[in-house]
């Protein structure tokens, strides 16, 4: 069998094991937090009777291990269950949220990845000259500013002062694609500024590393132009580390943007998860946790496969 | 002069000036208060006579989560309540002046001992599913909130009910164990929304008698509603002008402000005192604050050492610099407290009770008298205890230090604060949102048997006074009893009340007909009624 197929099979099996481990950890962690879902729902207004009644109704009186295996049994049959807090079907609620998260992550990636690669290449071309320094200075500045701050600054200028884009990025089904893109414009800009530096610097470093090699010198002596050398000789050999960084940032765009979601009231997975952790709604936390873990595992798998495909030595092992 | 006055009074009508500001400015122009008032009401009427029907009213609100439901029994934060006001109504509502007005109930009367209360259901009004509302629905609603399986947030206030029954299709009758002249006020509670068959079949169905029906409902994100053609309202208090209502959850304070400034919403709640003054200067919007009954507290358990010593409690009370807290924590958007849970916003409040002043000498004196061993007194706080709770605790620590009281602050996580710290630890920060009447405030937290007796205040003489006042129908006598109770808590209670917070909201200048209401934020969450957009 081809080594890539074997690798994918191995990774997928390992991934499923990891998902189990993650679900156990999430369950244990959420259960260990002080207070349970009944207390969190009733809050300051809880009375002993209403607590007891709500606990009984939600089935919280079963031992934790039994609750875990109940949940696991459901998931193995494809049933994520219903939220303890509002009784809504989890799969349905998550469906809409996941779509939103993916929509935002997709457009942020579409803008940021090509831009980062391009700026990285440009920085290499003008290494140690002013364009290189300017690119590094600007991207490192934007990555150093906390996301919410970037969000507020852009919101003030683009939404309140210039009124180009809305400050609230709430989507609904009646909007056209263009309206949706207009709604998420500021969050996409913020996310781009946040992930740009990491990818740009990695592109720059990886290509510069390759540029030290003898075959680049040869290409230079052949009389090839700098950009052509970078494009056809250096870049393909630097792809593996770049893809790794790109994948980490893509994963971040999916699972780590809760702050941006809150600032722009964007209905994504992050805010949904935080709300349910606060309320100790274990089935929802489990479901979201599994999806997030699966995204990480999946994107890492893609990164590994890409590095193998781009490396002839790994592609054709002896 | 006349022109100036006219301009001023139009400003009042549009909400740019408060009535009080108007009268003081009119006085500066040499007009007496009586004339100014008369002038004001004629302008106000002229303005209010032409509301615009139609449009969408958009509210950007904090206090919403993706975990919330449409079951009124489980509402505990702002947004579910704001949404609930759209589709549902309780029997009665409280008006801004403190009086009651009928919603599902058209009229009501109590027996002379205040033990039996009869509510007449408004004739011919319908739920949004077309069903006619009967007394049976009211009865079943009250049952769902008080039976032994109840998980309702209103369970605590339903305890005193001995029995309930219907009398024909339109009379709902409640018999109490102990007479309570304030019973109608209790039924204003937002959990007690009348649902078909009490909501037993499907508490989440969002079917009620409200002016609107929900169109989309994404918890914690956005809810839209459209006006019902068959809504019964139309009286002065209950007019629905807007065709559509949109509620957007904006838990982030800056996001809320930006949404109002960029015109994406028409009103917001929970304006941070820090930015309220700055915001008020912005064009096209105005900040509206109203003194309410909500208050921020430091609560000590009077049955736990060292707080079981009244001298120590007095020392802690004298060591609070209340004015400083109102100035620095509330930025002036509030009033000082007087170590009791009621203030002048309550009916039958006795304003002759002396205000406790900040007095370091007296604090030091009482501290010495208490014979406290000098070990640290730990005050637990968290950001979520009330806005600015950590800073308030720090200010308090400073002033305690000046009086020689060794106060130590322990900061707790927000998460789990209400289950692990409040009402558990002997000394902590907390808040109370107000109740409609004094009886309810005291029965909720100061009666020996109260579920939320967070100061462990258990005094038979106090309980007896509370029950006596409850059944007393003569307002003068009740006021006297409440005054005694207030003084008792002020002198001996475990509650330290540095401040009463204002409700601070902001509205776009397009919104007309907005009236401040001390019951809660955004006209007691009824801002979608009676207002309109110019």
Describe the structure.
The complex is a heterodimer of chains A (318) and B (534). Chain A is built from 15 helices and no strands. The two termini of chain A are 14 Å apart. In chain A, helix 6 (130-144) crosses helix 9, helix 9 (185-211) packs across helix 11 (226-255) and helix 10 packs across helix 11. Chain A has 318 residues and is mostly helical. Chain B is of the alpha+beta class and 534 residues long. Chain B folds into 4 domains: 2-48; 90-197, Dipeptide-binding Protein, Domain 1 (Dipeptide-binding Protein, domain 1); 210-286 and 503-533, Periplasmic binding protein-like II (D-Maltodextrin-Binding Protein, domain 2, 3-Layer(aba) Sandwich); 295-501, Dipeptide-binding Protein, domain 3 (Roll). In chain B, strands 1, 8, 9, 10, 11, 12, 13, 16 and 17 form a 9-stranded mixed beta sheet that branches. In chain B, helix 9 (310-318) packs antiparallel against helix 11 (360-370) and helix 15 runs antiparallel to helix 16. The model of chain B has no long low-confidence stretch (mean pLDDT 88). The chains are: A mainly alpha (318), B alpha+beta (534). Chains A and B meet through helix 2, helix 3, helix 7 and helix 13 of A and helix 7 and helix 13 of B. Chain A: It is a multi-pass membrane protein. Chain A: InterPro entries: BPD_transp_1_N, MetI-like, MetI-like_sf. Chain A: One of its GO terms (cellular component) is plasma membrane. Chain A: One of its GO terms (biological process) is transmembrane transport.
């Amino acid at each position: 069998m081809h080594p890539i197929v074997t690798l994918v099979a191995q990774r997928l099996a390992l991934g499923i094991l990891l998902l189990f481990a993650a679900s156990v950890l999430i369950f244990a962690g959420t259960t260990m937090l002080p207070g349970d879902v009944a207390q969190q729902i009733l809050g300051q207004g809880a009375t002993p009777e209403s607590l007891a009644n709500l606990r009984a109704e939600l089935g919280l009186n079963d031992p934790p291990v039994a609750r875990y295996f109940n949940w696991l049994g459901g998931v193995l049959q494809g049933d994520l269950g219903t939220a303890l807090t509002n009784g809504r079907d989890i799969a349905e609620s998550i469906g809409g949220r996941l779509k939103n998260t993916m929509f935002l992550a997709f457009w942020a990636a579409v803008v940021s990845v090509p831009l980062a690669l391009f700026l990285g290449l440009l920085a290499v071309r003008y290494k140690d000259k002013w364009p290189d320094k300017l690119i590094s200075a600007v991207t490192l500045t934007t990555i150093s500013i906390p996301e919410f701050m970037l969000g507020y600054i852009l919101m003030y200028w683009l939404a309140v002062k210039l009124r180009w884009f809305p400050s609230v990025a709430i989507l609904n089904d009646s909007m056209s694609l263009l309206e949706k893109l207009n709604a998420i414009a500021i969050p996409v800009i913020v996310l781009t500024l946040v992930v740009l530096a990491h990818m740009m610097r990695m592109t720059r470093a990886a290509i510069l590393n390759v540029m030290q090699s003898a075959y680049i010198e040869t290409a230079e002596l052949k009389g090839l132009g700098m950009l052509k050398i970078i494009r056809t000789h250096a870049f393909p050999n630097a792809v593996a580390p770049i893809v790794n960084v790109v994948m980490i940032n893509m994963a971040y765009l999916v699972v780590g943007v809760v702050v941006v979601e809150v600032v722009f009231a964007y209905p994504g997975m992050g805010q949904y998860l935080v709300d349910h952790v606060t309320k100790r709604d274990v089935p929802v936390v489990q479901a979201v946790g599994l999806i997030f873990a699966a995204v990480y595992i999946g994107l890492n798998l893609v990164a590994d496969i890409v590095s193998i495909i781009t490396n002839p030595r790994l592609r054709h092992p002896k | 002069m006349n022109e100036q006055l006219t301009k001023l009074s139009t400003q009042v009508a549009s909400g740019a000036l408060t009535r009080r500001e108007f009268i003081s400015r009119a006085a500066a122009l040499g007009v007496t208060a009586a004339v100014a008032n008369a002038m004001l009401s004629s302008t106000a009427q002229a303005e209010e006579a032409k509301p615009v029907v139609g449009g969408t009213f958009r509210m950007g609100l904090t206090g919403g989560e993706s975990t919330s439901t449409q079951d009124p029994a489980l509402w505990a934060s702002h947004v579910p309540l704001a949404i609930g006001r759209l589709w549902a109504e309780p029997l009665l509502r409280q008006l801004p002046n403190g009086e009651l007005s009928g919603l599902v109930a058209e009229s009501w009367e109590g027996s002379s001992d205040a033990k039996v209360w009869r509510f007449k259901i408004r004739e011919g009004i319908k739920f949004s599913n077309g069903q006619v509302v009967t007394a049976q629905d009211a009865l079943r609603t009250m049952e769902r909130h008080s039976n032994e399986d109840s998980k309702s947030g209103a369970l605590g206030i339903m305890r005193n009910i001995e029995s309930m029954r219907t009398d024909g299709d339109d009379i709902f009758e409640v018999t109490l164990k102990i007479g309570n002249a304030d019973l109608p006020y209790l039924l204003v509670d937002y959990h007690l929304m009348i649902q078909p068959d009490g909501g037993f079949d499907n508490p989440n169905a969002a079917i009620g008698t409200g002016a609107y029906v929900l169109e989309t409902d994404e918890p914690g994100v956005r809810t839209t509603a459209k006006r019902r053609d068959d809504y019964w309202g139309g009286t002065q208090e209950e007019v629905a002008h807007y065709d559509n209502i949109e509620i957007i959850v904006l838990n982030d304070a800056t996001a809320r402000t930006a949404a109002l400034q960029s015109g994406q919403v028409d009103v917001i709640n929970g304006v941070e005192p820090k930015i309220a003054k700055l915001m008020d200067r912005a064009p096209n919007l105005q900040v509206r604050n109203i003194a309410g009954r909500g208050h921020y507290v430091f609560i000590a358990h009077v049955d736990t050492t060292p707080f079981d010593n009244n001298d120590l409690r007095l020392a802690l009370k004298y060591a609070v610099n209340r004015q400083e807290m109102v100035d620095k924590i509330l930025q002036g958007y509030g009033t000082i407290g007087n170590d009791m849970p009621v203030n002048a916003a309550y009916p039958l409040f006795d304003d002759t009770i002396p205000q406790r002043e900040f007095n370091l000498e007296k604090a030091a004196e009482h501290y010495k008298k208490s014979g406290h061993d000098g070990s640290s007194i730990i005050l637990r706080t968290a950001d979520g205890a009330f806005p600015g709770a950590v800073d308030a605790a720090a200010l308090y620590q400073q002033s305690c230090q000046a009086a020689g009281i060794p106060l130590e602050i322990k900061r707790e996580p927000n998460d789990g604060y209400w289950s692990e710290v409040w009402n558990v630890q002997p000394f902590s920060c907390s808040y109370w949102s107000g109740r409609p009447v004094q009886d309810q405030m005291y029965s909720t937290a100061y009666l020996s048997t109260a579920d939320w007796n967070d100061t462990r205040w258990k005094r038979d003489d106090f309980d007896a006074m509370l029950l006596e006042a409850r059944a007393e129908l003569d307002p003068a006598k009740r006021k006297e009893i409440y005054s005694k109770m207030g003084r008792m808590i002020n002198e001996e209670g475990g509650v330290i009340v540095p401040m009463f917070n204002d409700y601070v909201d902001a509205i776009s200048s397009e919104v007309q007909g907005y009236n401040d209401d001390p019951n809660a934020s955004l006209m007691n969450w009824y801002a979608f009624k009676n207002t309109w957009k110019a």
